[in-house]
Design goal:
The complex is a heterodimer of chains A (about 80) and B (about 270).
Chain A lengths: L11 E4 L7 H11 L6 E6 L2 H13 L3 E7 L5 E6 L4
Chain B lengths: L4 H6 L1 H4 L5 H10 L1 E5 L5 H11 L3 E5 L24 H12 L4 E5 L8 H5 L4 E4 L4 H14 L3 E7 L2 E7 L7 H4 L19 H20 L8 E6 L4 E6 L29
Parallel strand pairs in B: 1-2, 1-4, 2-3, 4-5
Antiparallel strand pairs in B: 5-6, 6-7, 7-8
Helix pairs in contact in B: 4-5, 4-9
The chains are: A alpha+beta (about 80), B alpha/beta (about 270).
The complex binds zinc ion.
The site of zinc ion has 8 residues of chain B, from helix 8.
């Protein structure tokens, strides 16, 4: 379990540790809205359920999930590529 | 404009909808909607629009609250008997959502004030209880090219239609002239099941929000008729009438007129 692959360029990072649903997705969605198509968002979170629901919701909204990784006992990192306005 | 933490929570169920999102919620917060009447329909329309976060709600009504209103006019309450309906509506809507500014006008709507009243608003909602007002609001909205969401209720039946001047039908394409006063049910005949106003008002509020968001199909060229007893929603096609006296190619009604009362107010 290590760092994000060096070949993925991160354009924006948000830390939503401490938040629960639906605010985890609200924050992630607003961050994606503010980005350009093609850019990548890194989300740091510690709410287990959101590590599954955010990728699913992002895909439902037409965005691409590049990675979901548990980085330690409590935290996950999700990478989302914006594909759609 | 950035959302406050309170706004993120308040509007979270909107923001997570793909059709709304942060951008759509900001459109709602910046929107201005004018409601004709703070009665049976104006109450639920204004209530849901306030909850949704419509930035500015204008509302006109000349009446005070009576006990007989409270069977359906849910923005008002027993403690406020005798209070102006616009004042009560303002209290109710602004305390539901402090993001909303309610501008009440204590007047009867007429050909002399309607254009000034609606000119700064994006969308007009007709929640009036009588035919003269319905025709006046229709004609003014057509002349000023304001989208209009019109609703009506009687007994166990409701109607909703969305008028987009220049794009679709108007109320006069549907019913060119007002029915003669004698054909309109008298006050004693014209009861209404209170909950119907909630159904129709919520449909109107939904149409307003769709127009603001630019999502879905508005009730354009369509009259939606709700029959509560049979639990039936019927869509009736209403083509734009090329000879319509107000929105047709050669309109004969080019100035607003007030129609005599003598109609029962429901
Ligand atoms: Zn017409």
């Amino acid at each position: 379990m290590g760092d994000v692959k060096p070949d993925i360029k991160i354009d924006k990072k948000i830390n939503i540790k401490g938040l629960v649903c639906p605010y985890t997705f609200v924050k992630a969605k607003l961050a994606v809205e503010d980005m350009e198509v093609g850019e990548t968002l890194e989300i740091l979170l510690d709410y287990e359920e959101a590590s599954r629901s955010i990728p699913k919701s992002m895909e439902d909204h037409g965005q691409k999930v590049l990675k979901v990784e548990k980085i330690n006992d409590t935290d996950w990192i999700i990478l989302i590529k914006k594909e759609k306005e | 404009m950035e959302f406050t933490e309170d706004q993120l929570q308040r509007y979270s169920r909107h923001i997570i909808l793909p059709e709304v999102g942060g951008k759509g919620q900001k459109k709602i917060l910046n929107a201005k909607v004018f409601i004709v009447g703070a009665g049976g329909l104006g109450c639920p329309v204004g209530y849901y629009l306030a909850a949704a976060g419509i930035g500015t709600i204008g509302i006109i009504d000349n009446d005070t609250i009576e006990l007989s209103n409270l069977q359906r006019q849910i923005a008002h309450n027993t403690e406020r008997l005798g209070m102006l309906k616009i004042e009560s509506a303002k209290k109710t809507f602004e305390s539901l959502n402090p993001d909303v500014k309610v501008i009440g006008t204590k007047e009867r709507i007429s050909k002399d004030n309607i254009k000034d009243l609606i000119k700064d608003y994006d969308i007009v909602v007709d929640g009036s209880d009588n035919f003269p007002t319905r025709y006046l609001v229709n004609d003014a909205c057509v002349m000023m090219k304001k989208p209009l969401v019109s609703g009506a209720i009687l007994k166990f039946e409701g109607q909703v239609t969305t008028i987009l001047p220049g794009e679709g039908h108007c109320y006069r394409c549907l019913f060119e002239e007002m029915p003669p006063a004698g054909l309109v049910p008298s006050c004693q005949e014209a009861g209404v099941l209170g909950a119907i106003t909630g159904v129709v008002g919520a449909l109107q509020a939904t149409e307003v929000l769709k127009l603001i968001l630019g999502k879905g199909e508005p009730l354009k060229n369509t009259l939606l008729i709700y029959d509560a007893l049979r639990v039936n929603f019927r869509r009736v096609k209403v083509p734009k009438n090329p000879d319509c006296p107000v929105c047709g190619a050669h309109p004969t009604i080019t100035e607003l007129q007030d129609y005599d009362a003598g109609y029962c107010r429901i």
